[in-house]
């Protein structure tokens, strides 16, 4: 287990969004299925209250993870941030939630990209992508 904060960053191509944070409420030790879907035991804070340098480090790392795995379109990179500001990549989600209240669009809205602009960007990016494997 890594003790600390759970933070996330959306990625579109080489661009990274504002950072979001999941704060666990109630009696949950971590952001499990029950906390997320059953009893609404989490606050989603966008943008996360972080030092500017840490924000920049997270955004750079999110874009690097996206590139490392040769992702296309969109992804959300989740991190753990320790009390000593040590960053651990938790996972990359290549199909993040995409409702208007999901973290991915909320992070992009905090970055100045509205939901309809986000959808339009993804459609245009997909139309311009070469067909087939490459």
Structure characterization notes:
The chain has a domain at about 5-20 and about 50-130: ATP-grasp fold, B domain (D-amino Acid Aminotransferase, Chain A, domain 1). With about 130 residues, the chain is α+β, with helices and mostly antiparallel strands. The protein contains 4 helices and 5 strands; from the N terminus they run E-E-H-E-H-E-E-H-H. The mean pLDDT is about 90. It starts with a strand and ends in a 6-residue tail after the last helix. Strand 1 (about 5-10) and strand 2 (about 15-25) form a beta hairpin. The longest helix is centred in the middle third of the chain and has 17 residues, at about 50-70.
Count of DSSP H/I helices: 4
**Overall pLDDT confidence:** 89
> For the record, what is the CATH homologous superfamily label of the domain at 5-18 and 52-128?
ATP-grasp fold, B domain
How far the N terminus sits from the C terminus, by CA atoms, comes to 38 Å
Spatial order of the strands in the main sheet?
3-2-1-4-5
In the CATH hierarchy, the third-tier topology of the domain at 5-18 and 52-128 is known as D-amino Acid Aminotransferase, Chain A, domain 1
- Major beta sheet, specifics? 5 strands, antiparallel
- What percent of residues are in strands? 25-35%
Sum up the overall morphology in one term.
globular
CATH class of the domain at 5-18 and 52-128: Alpha Beta
Q: What's the count of strands?
A: 5
> Order of SSEs, N→C?
EEHEHEEHH
Judged by helices, strands and strand pairing, the structural class is alpha+beta
The helix content is 25-40%
CA gyration radius, whole angstroms:
15 Å
The second-level CATH architecture of the domain at 5-18 and 52-128 is 2-Layer Sandwich
- Poorly predicted runs of 5 or more residues: none
Assembly state of the chains shown = single chain
